Amino acid sequence: MKRWLLTGGRGMLGQDLARVVERSGDQVLVTGSADLDITDAQAVQDAVGDVDVVVNCAAWTAVDDAETHEAQAFSINATGAANVARACAQRGVRLVQISTDYVFDGTATTPYAEDTTQRPRSAYGRTKCAGEWAVRSLHPDALVVRTAWLYGAGGGNFVATMARLAGERDTLTVVDDQRGQPTWTVDLADLVVRLVDAGVPGGYWHGVSAGETTWWGLARAVFEEAGWDPERVQAVGSDQFVRPAPRPAYSVLGTARLSEHGVAPVRDWADALREALPELLA
Ligand SMILES: NC(=O)c1ccc[n+]([C@@H]2O[C@H](COP(=O)([O-])OP(=O)(O)OC[C@H]3O[C@@H](n4cnc5c(N)ncnc54)[C@H](OP(=O)(O)O)[C@@H]3O)[C@@H](O)[C@H]2O)c1
């Protein structure tokens, strides 16, 4: 039985990861920012003392706010990640660092392979990219698991927003020129546990659903699954929704490295949504 420590463990991913680890029969210690602030290097050193695996789910995740608060985002996403990596490396603890599609430029037309050179275009992406580099240099055995388009019961997300807006508006407009892989936090948690159990080598891994769609396609799928008329969801271009941080037009991540190491990929996004939606709508 392994002992896991989750930093940032009370967020959307952390809550489901804790459940999945417990279900696997391992022990899990969940910490949030109030009990373990990853920007406090000494506190991180003390916390990592007695565990086998650390998953760093802690992050500044407010993508638009990061544009005007890049230093604060950097202190969590880069310096905080470095603190966790240094402590884990010194004690020989397996580390999983959760990262993001925002480290890429979003201009590709075919899936980003795990070894594609990062080229972030937003402050959030730059800080997460710096976190990846820090983790890779301080702890080469760490797994950097990039994910994207996450939704889950434990936090605000696009699927929850669509469900709320369905009750407030007759029609909604959603962008149809950004492509990605909607990924259920339960499926990502399951993949993280499988990667650790398989003892895969360190480096970059992609933890996203199979298949791809647009935000408009995802919104329509939510409506269809929930039994609402999908024609209420209308497609618009991103130029109608200009945001402080640039959004990647193409965020599809390739997962070839999983099959190369005999690790089953995450299921198709539409199948996951079907299973997830009752819990999300409850
Ligand atoms: N959501 C997505 O669509 C998405 C996509 C790609 C990648 N990711 C990555 O997935 C990971 C998990 O994201 P999530 O969606 O679960 O985000 P989340 O719900 O915002 O959770 C992040 C957690 O980090 C904690 N945190 C912030 N600053 C901290 C600090 N200094 N020390 C310790 N904890 C701190 C927050 O706790 P407090 O609220 O208590 O401060 C929060 O609970 C992140 O690395 C994120 O970059 C997310």
TrEMBL record:
InterPro entries from the UniProt entry: dTDP_dehydrorham_reduct, NAD(P)-bd_dom_sf, RmlD-like-bd
Gene Ontology terms describing biological process: dTDP-rhamnose biosynthetic process
Taxonomy, superkingdom: Bacteria
Annotated pathway: Carbohydrate biosynthesis; dTDP-L-rhamnose biosynthesis
GO-annotated cellular components: cytosol
EC numbers: 1.1.1.133
Alphabetical keyword list: NADP, Oxidoreductase
CDD domains membership: dTDP_HR_like_SDR_e
Keyword Isomerase: no
SUPFAM superfamilies per UniProt: NAD(P)-binding Rossmann-fold domains
Example GO molecular function: dTDP-4-dehydrorhamnose reductase activity
Domain RmlD-like substrate binding intervals: 4-280
Function of the protein: Catalyzes the reduction of dTDP-6-deoxy-L-lyxo-4-hexulose to yield dTDP-L-rhamnose.
Protein's recorded name: dTDP-4-dehydrorhamnose reductase
Organism: Allobranchiibius huperziae
Lineage: Bacteria, Bacillati, Actinomycetota, Actinomycetes, Micrococcales
